[in-house]
Amino acid sequence: MRKRTSGAVGESALELGVDLLATYRLTTLIKDDKITEDLRGMVFSRYGEPGDEHSHKLSYLMACPWCLSIYFAAIAVLARRTAPRAWKPLSRVLALSAMTGLLAEQRG
Question: How far apart are CA 39 and CA 31, in angstroms?
Answer without folding.
Answer: 10
